[in-house]
Amino acid sequence: MAESILRQDRGMAVRLPPIGTDKLIYPVLAFLGIFFVLPIVWFFAKSAADFDGSFAAMLLETFTSPMFMTVAWKTVWISLLVTMLALLAAYPVAYTLSRATSFRFTLIIICVVLPYFTSIIVRTYSWMIILGTKGVINNFLVGMGLIEKPLNLMYNMTGVVIGMTYVLLPYFVLTLYSAMKGIDMWLVQAARSMGASNFYAFRKVFFPLSMPGIISGFLIVYILAVGFFITPALMGGPNDVMMAMLIQRNIEVTMDWPLASALSLFLLVITLAIYAVYCRYTDLDKMLGK
Amino acid sequence: MGAERMKTSGSIRFRGISKKYGDLTVVDDINLSIAPGEFFSLLGPSGSGKTTTLMMLAGFAMPDAGQILLDDTDISHMSPQQRNLGMVFQNYALFPHMSVLENVMFPLKVRKFSARECLERAKWAIDLVRLSSFEKRLPKELSGGQQQRVALARAVVFHPKVVLMDEPLGALDKNLRFQMQMEIKELQRKLDMTVVFVTHDQEEAMNMSDRIAIMNNGRIEQLGTPKEVYEAPRNIFAAGFLGEANILPYSRLSPDYRTGMGMGHEDSLFIRPERVVLGRGGRPGNDDTGQLHGEVLNVSFLGHIVRYEVTLHDGLKIYADSANLADMPVFDVGDPVSVGWRNPSDIRIINHG
Asked: SS3 breakdown of chain B: % helix, strand, coil, rounded to 5?
């Protein structure tokens, strides 16, 4: 039977009388205010005050320095690469997941989510065992005689990208999954009955309808990637410094807190900019009738 | 599109079609032929196999046994894509991200028509369902009836020989349903296409169909024109499903009457409520003539008819409808009445099987 959905919204929404549950949000608001908003304000205020010149001049100097430019470019570029790879890997997984029945669904969801519950450090070290010069992959390839010298899969950008893609994959899978779950498969069937090939039906019907999921997933993963620290720190080489690592160095090694705060401002701005885009596209969601 | 070609093609034949889901046989050895240009309805309660039968015709389900022929071509195992049938889905299945025009153009684009021809044909179909001023709207900006018409336009835009409809009016309210029934019927006549229509609404089936197949438990209980099936049901299921029916079991009828009618123990007497004639007075119990007597239990004023619920002396209930005319006798709750009919053709002896 057609299990398709009746998504028509006829009639007006009825506004229910308030029952006081909205007050439940206050503790969380207070928590966020004290431990998130206040520190940010305090952080920038203190940084500005500590510096014996104008904060703006410091910002200008920082943001035009070659070191900043290199790291900023690297951060933006690695994050983009990682996000795109994660999309490519996550799309088929999410698709299968959204169409899978109970047993297969459970199996896939365990494979996707279980690593998510494991410490990111443990997962990163596992990748180091797999990708290292004497790691599983290189031992196999050398052993098979396919290559003579071990490949450099780690302590360079390759390692960073592989590691980050893996760590961020579940976010993309779950975001895509929730979007795909809402797609009425009868639409694809309908396209097939109108003479469309599987691929045509996918391209013209399923894919455009999964677009909101792609956009949300892309933005979420990108935001997370931009601020990544552990994986690039452990798996990257001396040239693969990302913004979060630079901030950490300035705080712990050179004790240059004002500079660190300037750098974190960069991360905050990027994140907010992407978040603004994200909000625009959630409006688009509604436009598409989701 | 030449009318000549259309009249000679669009025939469908089911040969021994069966379908199982696990151990459950949902469609059991269906044989039927549908003529070109015929409006054919599969009518039955949910779980009767009507939708599965349609899905096998559309190519969304594969039969476990038997053959489906479309104009003598075996399509039983073709993909939906290859069958070239128009289809209207239960919830319309309009593409939410495409405008009305894009939705209707979809089957044409798939068929690689030129851009100009796509547009022309789509506009023709949209015009046909009187939605020309809504071309640019998205489906969710349309009312239920308008969405239904878009689905219809999309199903006929490429001139399929056969259009399948799976309870297409289920989501509409009653007045709109009737209007859409007439529109679909008119479109079918105008385009001279074969329509296979699935519904659980008996009025809808009777209003639109040339022939109806009443399905139950995966089998066709009865097949015929609406009038045939209504007036001469073959069994109790068909009698009860299509319209209201009074069934008087063998044991409730007087021995003389039973012998006179040649009834067997498994037989029942069937009479439609509108054929029942109530008379004033009467004694309790059956008299020798086989005349039934009872008491009015309930009177429902339905506007065009008045429906009387009558209990016979042994508790069996009979419904009698009388047209709301000025000269009709009026009964009140508690009135003793006699129950009869005018002509021998008003009743029918049917088997339980």
From this structure: 35, 30, 35
For residues B209 and B47, what is the distance between their CA atoms, to the nearest angstrom? 21
Q: What is the DSSP string of A134-156?
A: TSHHHHHHHHTTS-SS----SSS
Which residues of A touch chain B, with CB atoms under 8 Å apart?
A: 1-2, 4-10, 184, 186-187, 189-197, 200, 204-205, 208-209, 288-290
Annotated domain spans of chain A: 54-287
Q: Which pLDDT belongs to residue B6? A: 45
Gap between the Cα atoms of A284 and B206, Å rounded: 45
The verdict on B51 touching A (C-beta cutoff 8 Å) is yes
Over the stretch B222-245, which tens digit does the pLDDT of each residue have? 999 999 999 888 888 888 888 888
Max Cα-Cα span within chain B? 80
Total-model pTM: 0.79
Question: B267: how many CB neighbours lie within 10 A of its CB?
Answer: 17
d(CA B125, CA B119): 10
Residues of chain A predicted below pLDDT 50? 1-11, 287, 289-290
Q: Which residues of B touch A10 (CB under 8 A)?
A: 144
Question: What tokens does B90 get?
Answer: 């239960």
**What separation in angstroms does the CA of B256 have from each of A75, A102, B79, B318?**
99, 63, 60, 21
Per-residue pLDDT tens over the stretch B165-197:
999 998 888 888 999 999 999 999 999 999 999
Which domains occur in chain B, in start order? 3-234 (3.40.50.300), 244-351 (2.40.50.140)
Predicted pLDDT at B3: 43
CA B231 – CA A60 distance, rounded (Å): 92
CATH number of A54-287: 1.10.3720.10
Rounded Cα distance, A32 and A25, in Å: 11
- Work out the number of other CB atoms within 10 angstroms of the CB of residue A129: 10
Q: Is the pLDDT of residue B253 over 90?
A: no
Provide ipTM, 2 decimals.
0.77
